Write the structure tokens for this entry.
Amino acid sequence: MTTSSEIDDAILAVALPRWQKVAMVISKTSERLGSFDTDGDEQYGCYAERIEFLVREGRLVAQGDITKWRFSEVRLS
């Protein structure tokens, strides 16, 4: 089972100093982690929740409504 810390590390590893769509970061995170214990939609939702957490913690910066993955962006802070 993948832990929150492992997911956070994967997100931060694929995030860049330049803006990227949240959907792209979720996709790259999924590729980086490989298999997951749940189906795809639940997996992506989990990654999105962790991105929101990292934004609240100040480790990522967001622009737009990050719940709209294709219409918002994040970058490393």
Summary: The longest helix spans residues 40-56. The first strand starts at residue 20 and ends at 21.
